[in-house]
Fold this sequence. Notes:
Elements: H1 2-19, E1 28-33, E2 39-43, E3 60-64, E4 70-72, E5 75-79, E6 83-89, E7 92-99, E8 102-108, E9 115-122, E10 127-136, E11 143-155, E12 160-163, E13 165-171, E14 175-180, E15 188-199, E16 203-205, E17 208-216, E18 221-241, E19 248-262, E20 265-279, E21 286-301, E22 310-318, E23 320-325, E24 331-336, E25 363-369, H2 385-408
Antiparallel strand pairs: 1-24, 1-25, 2-23, 3-4, 3-24, 5-23, 6-15, 7-8, 8-14, 9-13, 9-15, 10-11, 10-14, 11-12, 16-22, 17-18, 18-21, 18-22, 19-20, 19-21
Amino acid sequence: MKLKIKRSLYIIGFVSSFCYGQMDQYNYKMELEGITGSWHKITLPNLVFEKVDNSLYDIRIFGIKANNDTIETPYLLKRKTKRIENTVVNFKKLNESYNQNGYYVTFEVPSESIVNQIDLDFEQDNFDWKLTLEGSQNNSEWFTIVEDYRILSIENAFSSYQFTKISFPNSKYQFYRVTVNTPEKLKLNRATLDLQKSTAAGYRNYEINTVETNNNKQTKKTTIEITLATPVPASYISLDIQNTFDYYRPIVIQYLTDSIKTEQGWKYNYRTLRTETLSSLEEEGFNFDSTILQKLKVVITNHDNEPLTVNSVKVKGYEHELVARFTEPATYFLAYGKSNPLRSNYDIARFENTIPKNLSGLTLKDVQTIEKVPTEITEPLFKNKMWLWAVMGLIIVVLGWFSIKMIRQ
Length: 409
């Protein structure tokens, strides 16, 4: 049993020594400068994403020691995404009523609670109302928090859209009163009061080369094609609409995956990133999963409305950062660019809470192409086939002579 274990360990050690730190399997490298301690962060520049695999699995950090041994440094890949934390606030619904001037509802919350968001869900569909939100500490003296705040619901065969969330600065009142300016008798199915805390995302604005807009009267659609300067990991797009009238249009955001040349010309294949509603009530852009791309297409369905005029387009993406641990003196490189890479599996991924919070950044030098070790080709014993035939003929003659000799005996 011990012999088998030893053999297994020898095999594992051999394979590890062969596979560990093979930087020549990658195509590009960038030397790291500024290593002074065990932990550092590395911000990936845009040019890395031009050659890296879409999965980002082919990123490695290698170190070349003084004796030319290669070591691999563990890292964590982090995207600086927006973090949202919602705290639900308990409340009681009081004094729900209505008259010809409007609908009224009052909420009572614990005195120590802070609120900055109220989400309303009405039984009615297809409405366009304005409301006023007030706060009070004694349910008698009221202070205006927001007024002429518009809420909207549209339900038809073409779209389903609701905007009924009231957002306002952090407020600490014991009572909140919502007044909806409508003579209709409303029914409030439910409401939620929240305190939303968010950490802003670390975005990087991307350079746009061209923006082409096409309004198709037959399909009643507006197509906007955006070409970026280089392939980058995009995760956000916003459209600056010139029109001042109210609008809500279905919108599809796509990106180019590949192209095929046919007899009829080039055929472009797009994949959908997000399907949403473009509305005049919401000025924010659209987030989608971080994807390495260079060409985007936005399709706006106008129905029977006039096309919207787009002044400009903005595309952004999260900053990508590596958190790495260095344990030995060496010259370190960031390596990338490999076909069919495997995902890295490092121990530090299971101990993130032990990583220091404040890390100093490293500098990346210019990109270098990694030289490949030439594969040794074993020359054949006989390059000329005539020699091979001659040897085979000699073997046949010798075998025949021995066969005849044996028959005679």
